[in-house]
Amino acid sequence: MRWTLVLSLAWAALTGCLAFDKALGNRIDLNDKQVTSLALSSPGNDSICPGEQVPLVVTATLASGEKFQTEGAGGGKVIWSSFIVETRGAHFAREGLLTADEDPRETIAWPVHVTARLGSRGPVAEMDLPLTYTCKYVANFNGSAGDDGQDGANGDDAPGQNGSRGDDGSDGEQVQVAVSLIPGPKPGSSLLSVFVRGARKQRLYYIDPTHSSLLLRANGGDGGDGGSGGLGWSGAKTSNGAYGDGGSGGNGGRFIVHVSPEAAGYMNCIHFDNRGGHGGKGWKRGTDGRPGPPPFF
Description:
Blueprint: H1 2-24, E1 35-41, E2 53-55, E3 57-62, E4 67-69, E5 83-88, E6 90-93, E7 97-100, E8 112-118, E9 124-129, E10 136-140, E11 174-183, E12 190-197, E13 202-207, E14 213-217, E15 254-259, E16 270-273
Parallel strand pairs: 10-14, 11-15, 14-16
Antiparallel strand pairs: 1-3, 2-7, 3-4, 5-8, 6-7, 8-9, 11-12, 12-13
């Protein structure tokens, strides 16, 4: 019941703000406009990588020749809820953002396709974004940072209490990496297929072996800082509490790499980073974590 009330109030506030903005002319819909055509674009983008996010813009042209653009990247006033947006190979967010599917197998055979429609029978705009595999990817399998220690309580008629020690950072994950060479979408082209799997997530990447790169990180988490000491009672000759010690940094993780023979000559575009985490600050600085071993092939 409580959450239903909170959500209802939040929705009322949101719709109220939208109505207020529309009354002021800051945001508009196109319900009362005679729209003759729509155009879709993604400023500065003529292609998209798997998993990449790009902005969309709809330009609506009226019978009078006047043009209106969507809010967000378009810099206009037209709200995105004016349109029905459908996608293939991607996901659309109401903020005007398009995210290509992460799994490159879903889109290697065709481009990302976007359709924007004004109502069920209004004008329609369509756009294709070809897939590219030249992005600079980063995959994180880092350990978590330790929490900071709690601050010491202030003294009443006694010295302030000492802050507590920061928590240790956790170790970087052990990551399995499988690399092979596969045919690319264009005749005669090739892509590196890189499947990475850690303790909590996994992902497949297709990358251009000459124009792209993949950085794999399994760094140890930083140690938390020690809590600050509490203040001594100002009316007595008592001292403040001391800072707590910093937590230790986690150790770097480990990469176990399996490479097919035909892909061995392209491993210079895959980079590995498994440093130890930094020790936290405090009365005594925490110990830095140890770096992980070189990748095991």
